[in-house]
Design brief:
This protein has two domains: 10-171 and 354-373, 3-Layer(aba) Sandwich (Rossmann fold); 175-351, 3-Layer(aba) Sandwich (Rossmann fold). Helices cover 43% and strands 14% of the residues. The chain has 14 helices and twelve strands.
Length: 374
Amino acid sequence: MVAGDMHVGGIENQLMHLARNADKNKFQIDFTSTKRDAFFRKEIEALGGTFVLIPPMSWRNPEKYCKALLEVMRRGQYDIVHSHELFHSGITLAIAKKAGIPNRFAHAHNWCDDDGTGRKRSVMRSIYNSIMRTMINRYSTIQIACSTWAGTFLYGSKVIQRDTYHLVFNSVDSRLFLVHYGQQESGEFCDGTWVNVLNVARITAVKNQKFLVEIADVFRKRGCNIRILCAGNGDESYEAQIRALIRERRLESYVRLIGVRKDIDVLMRKSSAFVLPSKYEGMPLVMIEAQATGLSCVSANTYSPEVDFEIDTVTWLSLDDSPEQWADAIEAAIQKNRPTKESVEQAIRKKKFDSKMFAETMCNLYQQEYNRNK
């Protein structure tokens, strides 16, 4: 697996679902990382995988990264390389081809690659994306996408018609959410004074927490005891902007930045709605988790609707809609009853949103390609 640094994020969580559920008698899954103290390092090693430290990619000196990755691939004598690096996968897969690895998987996890600041993509970036797309389609033997939007973005509309293309939705450990479905929680954030609305995302411009502050300001002006809990960390500069804006608007009680949490399932049961105003997403795991908990969700229409359980759990809004309109939708979501556990389970089975089903699908693809090319 070539997937950045394997620290904290949606892609990393998704790949750990695979590592946990793969048959250890058939598959050894190793991960490259550019971060020595990556969040998932210990678990990867505990699962029998090798954590392979490589230097970060530098466009001023790409040779160091490329040589290191080539050496790792040759030394490991891998049957399969699976790249999750969006357009950078073009380089990864070309190196895998040079290393003689017969089965080369590309994986599209997003349908956009801007930084969320609104800056226009440079001509050089567009040229780079075009070259990398050509390399990905040339050097990959299998193309996978988490959504139709993501597949079209990375590979192009013609490639997603190939037999080598597979749409494999993201997944969650649904058992974690279903076993305690509807359970009442107590303790932190359960003082009875405030109604909790949860957001789980990296603190970045793309995830758009600044808009959450605008929504919270509407709740303050209305005198509503509704607060937004933001779980995650990320860009320090952007987080500093968010904290400054919270202080400026005197919203310390209405927006709480609570950092990285390991109890997301519990936080969801402590919340009455979920909100996600991201400027773009591939197929957000947190939306699957929120719906698996039975939470009503208010989301930007900036990613594939394929994530919707289709049981009246999601309200889609535009980011051009006003903070007041978003606040109205959140208040309505809070009033909704949770769907039945049976309807949630049925939706998860239908779209294969469960991590064990995801792992089974991926391992079957690995096995098929291995058998075909051995």
